[in-house]
Design goal:
- With 675 residues, the chain is α/β, with parallel strands linked by helices.
- It has 3 domains: 209 residues, Rossmann fold (3-Layer(aba) Sandwich); 210 residues, Dimethylsulfoxide Reductase, domain 2; 126 residues, Beta Barrel (Barwin-like endoglucanases).
- Helix content is 29%, strand content 17%.
- It has a 6-stranded mixed β-sheet, with helices on one face. Strands 23-25-24-27-22-26 form a 6-stranded mixed β-sheet. It has a 5-stranded parallel β-sheet with strand order 10-9-8-12-13, with helices on both faces.
- A hairpin with a 4-residue loop joins strand 24 and strand 25.
- The longest helix has 19 residues.
- The chain binds ligand MGD (2 copies), iron/sulfur cluster (SF4) and molybdenum atom (MO).
- Iron/sulfur cluster binds next to loops.
Length: 675
């Protein structure tokens, strides 16, 4: 008799929507995956990426056994070995590195390929106990959070679903319909009630196409636009004086600072029309409730933290926090984190006072090539470094080193895994228990495993238990089972109830107005329009526009390059190689404005070399009105195979952001040469 059951889970992708799903399992095989209609945010819908997740899970290309490299690094030739052989080799190599160079020469690189709690954090117990090196900063989100916190003392914005109460919604540097699709119905619902939607983005995205009004500034110039908005708000008496007096610090300094930030001046910097800047400020100063929604894209600039620090000043000036549906909506990870005891799951105490040497996440390429503090072993977990890190040719050079020992825990032989000495097989979310803290809504979700791990694959937590055993460690916390670790991580949550219910709503003010009456956790207790603590970090205390250093190379590399998330069937680096994803999105191209194409005598489909001192990719030209003249765009997420060698990130800038430890991917200048 065959047995069928339905198992509830939560999508693990680094995506704000953290959808609830239901897997139908017949005789141990998942036969259908669909959205859970009862989920309060995703409401039964998944997305074009994950609708075909079973094809990913059961793909014949899955890595199901430990593999050892037999060919040259990068050649992608491997032989199957046993887990015992793999662990013996890893244990031996790690011990040799520690004996000769110290544990600081071992670098774990963990990213959010699976952003669930155990997947991301349980392994830190092992790395803390080892006192290995660690990555600092982040590819995603830290800059936006840190910039916001600089002004507000907290990264906590409003619940994005409350946009349904807004009358003005400014989507500022976020491509909602592509990257955060389950939020769109809330925005549409506000629209039904008369709300206007404005998109501000250097690319005419699919979200821009759906807006009531679209503004297209040059990349990296928004702070000038914001300062001009402040200028107009003050000039035209649109400031909420009562709220500003009570809840902000430094208003007079800011007012003096923006006197010469006229709309005319900002228009020149941003490449916008003066009238449009006037109109935007007027709308923002007069329509209530007014919400600004932002996410991650705008942090990928040298002055990324300044963007978010300045943006956070705007709602304070017009008293937007007073209203439900007013204020500023960004990642709500900080709200979800309230119920997570991060120390209990990642156990930094296991370092026992030893420092873990830090390597900036965005500069792993540089670290792998550095002669000082040489990295001798890397362990890549949930990251496709050769596609996702900036300046990937540097990463490649590093991974090619003969004296570097590379371990990759993966589901597929990715561009990165090709450089591994040992590949270890990873489960998918259907195969392991976990809990997902959402950064796009207020529900932390349970993930019940639907099927047994395929082949010999293991979850991230089991991987680290095995690594601990391979090292001969005896510290009991390294071997906690998943439920014990989850109980420690969620001390206030009844795990059995969470498991039965599927999700729990995290604490959030019932009236939807977290900052209506101030109470900001800054040093001054107020919104810091002037933030003196920034001076100590070498940054101006007042919001300040600074052009990106990279632009100085414009004489050699005249085009600004964006490499955005662009495909509905891609989630970061994760789907381009699968037959029901990649081919349906076409192939990589460079989008070029027809005027630029004419000047370069380039026509649609003509192959062009896009290059700078970091790398070079050859792609066909796509004439496009989505970019402005002077700006070109190559969609990101394709692997080297579809790019005939190098990838979009071969070209990108690995400079760190002003503060917050992010990456200036989108401050990249390139030249175009027909081939
Ligand atoms: N040019 C450019 N570069 C960018 C960006 C951009 O917009 N443009 N965006 C940046 C951003 S915001 C991010 S978040 C990063 C994302 O960069 P990555 O983290 O590299 O991207 P993902 O594709 O989400 O996940 C990486 C890998 O995790 C694997 N994986 C999935 N589940 C598991 C698991 O349970 N265990 C293990 N061990 N592996 C698993 C997947 O197979 C995948 O290969 O890229 C950044 N890079
Ligand atoms: N389909 C799909 N969905 C995804 C992902 C995916 O790969 N595919 N990735 C997920 C991940 S990891 C993340 S972090 C989120 C990101 O979600 P978003 O932040 O919404 O998406 P991004 O594409 O990173 O950036 C948003 C927009 O910022 C714009 N931008 C770049 N520079 C500037 C600037 O200087 N000023 C302004 N105003 N805008 C600028 C880009 O053109 C882009 O359209 O999406 C998640 N959702
Ligand atoms: S990738 Fe995002 S939109 Fe798609 S199912 Fe997962 S959480 Fe939902
Ligand atoms: Mo991200």
């Amino acid at each position: 008799m065959s047995e069928t059951r339905v198992v509830n889970g939560t999508c693990h992708h680094d995506c704000p929507d953290s959808c609830g799903w239901q897997a139908t399992v017949t005789d141990g095989i998942a036969v259908q995956l669909r959205g859970n209609p009862a989920h309060p945010f995703s409401k039964g819908e998944l997305c074009p990426k994950v609708n075909k997740f079973l094809d990913r899970t059961y793909s014949s290309d899955r890595v199901l056994h430990p593999l050892r490299r037999v060919g040259a690094k990068g050649a992608g030739e491997f032989e199957q070995i046993t887990w015992d052989e793999a662990l013996t080799e890893i244990g031996g190599r790690f011990r040799d590195v520690i004996d000769e160079h110290g544990a600081g020469a071992i670098l774990p690189v963990v990213s959010a390929g699976n952003q669930s709690l155990l997947a991301l954090s349980f392994g830190q117990r092992f790395w803390n106990h080892l006192a290995a090196a660690k990555t600092t900063g982040s590819l995603c989100g830290l800059v936006a959070g840190t910039g916001t916190k600089t002004t507000n003392g907290s990264g906590m914005g409003i619940d994005p679903s409350d946009l349904e109460h807004s009358q003005l919604i400014i989507l500022w540097g976020t491509n909602t319909r592509l990257t955060n699709r389950h939020l769109w119905p809330f925005i549409e619902s506000a629209r039904t009630n008369g709300a206007q939607v404005v998109v501000i983005d250097p690319l005419r995205t699919m979200t821009a196409e759906s807006a009531d009004w679209f503004l297209q500034p040059l990349p990296g110039t928004d702070v000038a636009l914001m300062l001009a908005m402040v200028h107009v708000l003050i000039r035209d008496g649109l400031v909420d004086n009562e709220w500003v007096t009570e809840h902000t610090l430094g208003f007079d300094d800011l007012a003096a600072h923006v006197t010469d930030w006229t709309p005319q001046r900002a228009a020149t910097v941003c490449g916008l029309a003066t009238d449009d800047i006037e109109r935007l400020a007027q709308m923002y100063g007069t329509i209530r409730p007014a919400a600004i929604r932002t996410l991650i894209g705008a942090e990928h600039h040298e002055h990324g933290a300044m963007f978010f620090r300045t943006l956070t000043c705007l709602p304070a000036l017009v008293g937007a926090w007073r209203d439900q549906g007013g204020g500023y909506a960004r990642s709500v990870g900080v709200w979800n984190d309230q119920i997570v005891d991060d120390l209990a799951i990642s156990r930094p105490d296991l370092r026992a006072g030893r420092e873990r040497r830090g390597v900036p996440m965005g500069q792993i390429g540089r670290a792998l090539n550095s002669e000082t503090d040489r990295v001798m072993a890397v362990c890549m977990i949930g990251v496709n470094a050769m596609v996702s890190l900036p300046s990937t040719e540097l990463v490649r050079q590093g991974l090619l080193r003969d004296d570097l020992f590379t371990v990759v825990h993966e589901q597929f032989i990715t561009d990165t895994a090709r450089y591994a000495d040992i590949i270890l097989p990873a489960t998918t979310q259907l195969e392991a228990v976990d809990v997902v803290s959402s950064w796009g809504h207020m529900y932390t979700g349970w993930n019940e495993p639907a099927i047994a791990p395929l082949g010999e694959s293991v979850s991230n937590s089991e991987l680290h238990r095995r690594l601990a055993r391979a090292m001969g460690f005896t510290e009991p916390a390294l071997f906690d089972d998943d439920l014990t670790a989850l109980r420690a991580a969620l001390p206030t949550i009844d795990l059995d109830k969470l498991r039965a219910d599927g999700w729990v709503r995290v604490p959030y003010p019932e009236d939807g107005r977290p900052w209506a009456n101030g109470g900001f956790p800054t040093a001054s207790g107020k919104v810091e329009l002037r933030c003196d603590s920034l001076l100590a970090l070498g940054h101006p205390a007042l919001p300040t526009y600074t052009p990106a250093s990279e632009w100085a190379s414009a004489d050699r590399f005249p085009f600004m390059l964006l490499t955005p998330k662009q495909h509905a069937r891609f989630l970061n680096s994760s789907y381009s190689h699968l037959p029901k994803h990649g081919p349906l999105e076409g192939t990589p191209v460079v989008e070029l404005h027809p005027d630029d194409a004419a000047a370069l005598q380039l026509v649609e489909g003509r192959c062009v070399r896009v290059w700078n001192d970091r790398g070079s990719v050859e792609v066909p030209v796509k004439l496009s009105q989505r970019v402005r003249p002077g700006v070109v765009s190559i969609p990101w997420g394709w692997w080297s195979a579809q790019h005939h060698g190098q990838v979009a990130n071969s070209l990108t800038n690995d400079a760190q952001t002003d503060w917050g430890g992010g990456v200036a991917y989108f401050d990249t200048m390139v030249a175009l040469t027909p081939v």
